TrEMBL record:
<keyword id="KW-0694">RNA-binding</keyword>
<dbReference type="InterPro" id="IPR002583">
    <property type="entry name" value="Ribosomal_bS20"/>
</dbReference>
<dbReference type="GO" id="GO:0070181">
    <property type="term" value="F:small ribosomal subunit rRNA binding"/>
</dbReference>
<protein>
    <recommendedName>
        <fullName>Small ribosomal subunit protein bS20</fullName>
    </recommendedName>
</protein>
<keyword id="KW-0699">rRNA-binding</keyword>
<comment type="function">
    <text>Binds directly to 16S ribosomal RNA.</text>
</comment>
<dbReference type="GO" id="GO:0015935">
    <property type="term" value="C:small ribosomal subunit"/>
</dbReference>
<dbReference type="InterPro" id="IPR036510">
    <property type="entry name" value="Ribosomal_bS20_sf"/>
</dbReference>
<dbReference type="GO" id="GO:0003735">
    <property type="term" value="F:structural constituent of ribosome"/>
</dbReference>
<dbReference type="Pfam" id="PF01649">
    <property type="entry name" value="Ribosomal_S20p"/>
</dbReference>
<keyword id="KW-0687">Ribonucleoprotein</keyword>
<dbReference type="GO" id="GO:0005829">
    <property type="term" value="C:cytosol"/>
</dbReference>
<dbReference type="GO" id="GO:0006412">
    <property type="term" value="P:translation"/>
</dbReference>
<comment type="similarity">
    <text>Belongs to the bacterial ribosomal protein bS20 family.</text>
</comment>
<feature type="region of interest" description="Disordered">
    <location>
        <begin position="1"/>
        <end position="27"/>
    </location>
</feature>
<keyword id="KW-0689">Ribosomal protein</keyword>
Amino acid sequence: MANTAQARKRARQAVKQNAHNSSQRSTLRTAIKAARKAIQAGDKEAATLIFQQSVSKIDSIADKKIIHKNKAARHKSRLAAALKALSA
């Protein structure tokens, strides 16, 4: 239990930040799922548009250090490879 005023404040801030970061991670997962679903549907134009939106969201969350930059790169790479395989 936090004993000082400073520690109590940091505990309150941590709760708020955890809720915000959890929300951002959920948005990230939703964007990745949407891209995968669009790629599986087979429509190249729609998949490309959703892919670009997903990449933007992934980059945004990585810039805020909610996920590691290498994890963001891995997600983008796998989505791009799947999109490329769709056209082949």
